[in-house]
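Interim report to the steering committee. The following record documents the input for C-C motif chemokine 1 (79 residues).
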Amino acid sequence: MDANHFCASLLVHVPASNCCFTLMERKMSLQRIQCYKNTSSTCSYKNRLILKLNGGREACVSQTKSWVQAYLKRINPCQ
């Protein structure tokens, strides 16, 4: 895969279109997450979120994961 699909440390790069094609499956620390945003309604894959992480990185995750649902109660949407 090329640089448009992966960043260092197994974090998935989010294209400018705000769609997620590859998901981060592993649970991450809540302290690493600044906020979240929904993917664009035009994306072919649904039920995915973009997490904005400390250090400016982003990761795509499935909204159906139990750890993601629990984290959503404790973090705010991105502005």
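Residues 1-10 have pLDDT under 50 and may be disordered. The committee is asked to note this result when reviewing the revised timeline.
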